[in-house]
Amino acid sequence: MAGPVVHTYRAAESGLLVNSYLVEGQSGVVVVDTNLLVSDVQALLARLGALKKPLRAILVTHAHPDHFNGILALVRDKEVPVYATAGVGRVIKEIADAKRAQWSPVYGAEWPAETYYPNSLLADGAQVQLDELSFTVRELGPAESHADSYFQLSADGSRPVAFIGDLAFHGTHPYTADGHSAAWLAALDVLAGELASVGMLYPGHGDPAGPDVFAGQRRYLLYYREVIRRLSGGEPRLSEAAKAELGATLQAFLPDAPLTWMIELGADAVAAELAARTATGGS
Predict the structure, then answer these.
(1) How many whole angstroms separate alpha carbon 217 and alpha carbon 174?
(2) How large is the angle between the packed helices 212-232 and 267-279, nearest 10 degrees?
(3) CB burial string 167-183: b at 16+ within 10 A, e below
(4) How far apart are CA 93 and CA 119, in angstroms?
(5) How confident is the model at residue 156 (pLDDT cuts 50, 70, 90)?
(6) What's the CA dihedral at 47, 51, 54, 57 to 10 degrees?
């Protein structure tokens, strides 16, 4: 093996098209993000088993269940380090039970009954060395979720790559319901500089991309915010008619993209965010 190989397991749309990555090194595998539904986690385990190398570690990019729900099944009874930033680990503990209560009625037995929390918390800029694989974490705080980060991978002098979680969606409508769109825009400006020279970006949803994926996400968020600003009239909620118009407008902006239900899901959170910023003199 000349260098690490990145394998992708992608869920179907019922599992939010989320990507889990299996980074195959010379003597083991590192999993980045662990999928949402029990059936997808089992498929991810099968992919891992087919590589016939031990699981060395799990990395979690951010605090959303489609990225941390599968940890328990992957760890089982093994002593596997599960790395996340301190902020990501804290938020996972804060939200996991509420997310289960919210979504178990929808997904039934497909939603894991327990959550395994990251057991190896990292400071911003910390490095994790796993054989020849060197991962460096960058903590960005609230953006797409309440706590976001990315992991940059360097190995054997090859050009670095980065696993960016949901800091940029590639070709799908994004999740905006945590209401941090202004902070997310600021993070995208930082990322465009920090990751300008990486060889490849591996997003949580969509195909691998170059650094221009950040500009695409920025355009989407700016447009989304302005449409909501117009439709909300400064109020912290949108009417059902306004949400329907928002959905149609954003589908026209990003035609043929999946996860269209996320457009209206985040409408009130972003409307409330914009109304609060206006009340305090922000934009």
Answers:
(1) 9
(2) 80
(3) bbbbbbbbbbbbbbbbb
(4) 11
(5) confident
(6) -50
Q: What are phi and psi of 178, to 5 degrees?
A: -85, -10
**Contact between 207 and 163 (Cβ < 8 Å):** no
Q: CA–CA separation, 273 vs 280, rounded Å? A: 11
Q: Would the pTM count as exceeding 0.90?
A: yes
Beta bridge partners of residue 165, listed in sequence order: 203
Q: What is the pLDDT of residues 16-47, one digit of tens each?
A: 999 999 999 999 999 999 999 999 999 999 99
Beta bridge partners of 200: 161
- Sorted by sequence, the CB contacts under 8 Å of residue 195 that are 6+ apart come out as 150, 152, 162, 164, 201, 211, 214
> Count of CB atoms within 10 A of residue 120's CB?
15
Pairwise CA distance, residues 249 & 144, whole Å: 21
CB environment 70-101: b (16+ within 10 A), e (fewer): bbbbbbeeeebbbbbbbbbbbbbeebbeebbe
**AA identity, residue 18:** V
The answer to whether the CB of 22 falls within 8 A of the CB of 47 is yes
pLDDT of 278 over the 90 cut: no
Angle, CA of 99, 101 and 102, to the nearest 5°: 60
DSSP secondary structure, 210-225, as one string: -THHHHHHHHHHHHHH
CB-based contact 235:48 (threshold 8 Å): no
How many residues comprise the chain? 283
pLDDT tier, 283 (very low <50, low <70, confident <90, very high otherwise)? low
Q: Which two tokens stand for residue 1?
A: 């093996």
Whether 165 contacts 255, CB under 8 Å: no
- Indicate if the pLDDT at residue 1 is higher than 60: no
